Amino acid sequence: MTELSGLTAGTKCSGCGIVLQNESPDHPGYIPAQALERTPLLCQRCFRIRNYNESSTVTVDQSEFLRLLGQVGEQDALVIHIVDLFDFHGSVISGLQRFVGNNPVVLAVNKTDLLPKVTNWNKIRNWVQKEAKELGLKVEDIVLCSAKQNTGFDRLLDIVGSMRGDRDVYVVGATNVGKSTLINRLISDYSDLEEELTTSRYPGTTLDTVNIPLDDGHYIIDTPGIVYESRYTELVNKQDLAAIMPDKPLKPLVYQLNEGQSLFFGAMARFDFVQGGHQSFTFYLNNRLKIHRTKLERADELFANHAGVMLAPPVKADLDKLPAWTRHELRILKGKPTDIFISGLGWIKANSTDGALVAVHLPKGVKVMMRPSLI
């Protein structure tokens, strides 16, 4: 990251200590040009916390984030791991347990507002508990919550209050999971910022953790959001991000398919029903994303001729910036309720008890996997 021109090399934020830069608002140390005349110099993140009691998300790459996590295990801390229910397997931090040591972990599962209103929440909680265990996570408690609807956060705050004791609280998560909303609630409930910040400097590291002082002398440690490039949401531009990230409860779409049929989700992905008896598949995707059905034998030609135009988003210019598509062949076992999960895009539930052979085409690197059905 290039440092600011016109300042002494290595000029740091007086709040968290990060080296300042003005090229990327989403990266640590960003300060807008109009803020250079302020005294003291604060990065945008510290400025928002100090003046508005609000935290904003910045990001670091995976290697930097893992080095940061390695410091957590050396502390006596409470860890809040926030994940996105819509993108659970894409946003969970794999290997977290190796880094946090014996520190207790609370799993905050955000964006429950996106699931259909008839959802059985006890089943969802049991599903999360089972999948977390499969991933090697040891959690003290699981909280289903919605930052958008402000539900579940009171319970999470109660858990933090009862568990943290003499500990600092680390909040960790991937990008776009709602971490800043949680940080802001913790700030408003636990920190007398105006009094604390007039007398003390925000402690931080060159990785841009921000230690937000609590009333009892401990801290909320706001960590940068980790970027997982296996999530579709990290590949697309902001305009197309709105097309794949839902902001309303999902309305599942059920398609009755015969062997040899294909479905395009705009030009984001393609689903082939390669082999199996007539059966239905339920699609849990952003309803803004248009689905186009065709014959499998015509799918390659259709994509070649219409990708980025009839099949959109993304438009042709943005499609050309994405990695080339790769094909994933998946066999759905008989009598086993299964989701085909596409990180950042949604999932497809196989409804038949007869089994099927399917294929998913996606930009290379996007995570696709089979999992037990969420719903």
Question: In words, what does this structure look like?
Answer:
- The chain is α/β, with parallel strands linked by helices and 375 residues long.
- It is 25% helix and 26% strand.
- The chain has 11 helices and 18 strands.
- The chain folds into 2 domains: 53-226, P-loop containing nucleotide triphosphate hydrolases (Rossmann fold); 234-372, no CATH class.
- Helix 5 links the parallel strand 3 (105-110) and strand 4 (141-144).
- A 6-stranded mixed β-sheet has the order 4-3-2-5-7-6, sandwiched between helices. It has a 5-stranded antiparallel β-sheet with strand order 9-12-16-15-18, with no helix packed on it.
| Large-scale geometry | globular
The count of DSSP E runs of length 2 or more, i.e. the number of strands, is 18
Low-confidence stretches: 193-201
Strand order of the largest sheet: 4-3-2-5-7-6
Named CATH architecture of the largest domain: 3-Layer(aba) Sandwich
Count of helix runs: 11
InterPro entries: G_CP_dom (IPR030378), GTP-bd (IPR006073), GTP-bd_ribosome_bgen_YqeH (IPR019988), Mito_lipid_metab_GTPase (IPR050896), NOA1/YqeH-like_C (IPR048422), P-loop_NTPase (IPR027417)
Domain CP-type G: 62-229
GO molecular function: GTP binding
Pfam families: MMR_HSR1, YqeH-like_C
Briefly characterize the structure.
GO terms for molecular function: GTP binding. The protein is of the alpha/beta class and 375 residues long. The chain has helices at residues 44-52, 62-72, 88-91, 96-100, 121-134, 153-163, 179-190, 193-197, 238-244, 296-306, 316-319, and strands at 59-60, 77-84, 105-110, 141-144, 168-173, 210-213, 219-222, 225-226, 253-257, 261-265, 269-275, 279-285, 291-295, 325-332, 338-342, 346-350, 356-363, 368-372.
